[in-house]
Specification:
The protein is an alpha/beta fold. It has one domain: Rossmann fold, CATH 3.40.50. Helices cover 38% and strands 23% of the residues. It is built from five helices and six strands, in the order βαβαββαβαβα. Strands 1, 2, 3, 4, 5 and 6 form a six-stranded mixed beta sheet that branches. A hairpin with a 2-residue loop joins strand 3 and strand 4. Helix 1 crosses helix 5. The model has no long low-confidence stretch (mean pLDDT 88).
Length: 159
């Protein structure tokens, strides 16, 4: 079974989890990168991110070279912004068809919104078999080692 980890990370939290999943599952990894960078600090970060979500923006992504047909299982990870996934996934979902896959969802956040995120992403990607969901509260800032143990245990249950 070929596995792919697709993620977007603004501050490195989701990247940490994505790289751990990829290592544990010997998966290929795809980081979504926007052509225009989002602010990473202060009030600008929240205003820019919130506006992007509320207006359902589709930021232009750097070139992606992946054939999703090659993968049976996909892990999708994102920070949670305003209760949903980060806008780069709007662009990705619009441009790539993800169907008939086993999908694991993971998210990083500063205080909640995971359930809404899971439901919204599942509605955008129907016709898939969702195998698990997990979220983390700022794993770089809070309990990094505990978060790494948690993700390894979760992934191993799904194998």
């Amino acid at each position: 079974m070929r596995t792919l980890v697709i993620y977007y990370s603004l501050e490195g939290n989701t990247k940490l989890i994505a790289e751990t999943i990829a290592k544990e599952t010997t998966a290929d990894i795809l980081e979504l990168k926007t052509k225009k960078e989002y602010p990473t600090g202060g009030l600008k970060k929240y205003l820019w991110g919130g506006k992007s979500v509320l207006f359902n923006q589709k930021p232009e992504l750097m070139e992606i070279d992946v054939d999703l047909k090659e993968y049976d299982r996909i892990f999708i990870g994102t920070p949670i912004w305003v209760g949903t996934y980060a806008p780069p996934f709007n662009t990705f979902i619009e441009n790539y068809n993800i169907e008939n896959k086993k999908i694991g969802l993971f998210a990083c956040h500063g205080g909640g919104g995971a359930k809404k995120f899971y439901n919204k992403l599942k509605s955008k990607l129907p016709n898939n078999d969702y195998i698990g969901e997990i979220d983390f509260l700022e794993p770089i800032k809070k309990d990094t080692e505990e978060s790494l143990i948690k993700i390894r245990e979760w992934v191993n249950k799904l194998q």
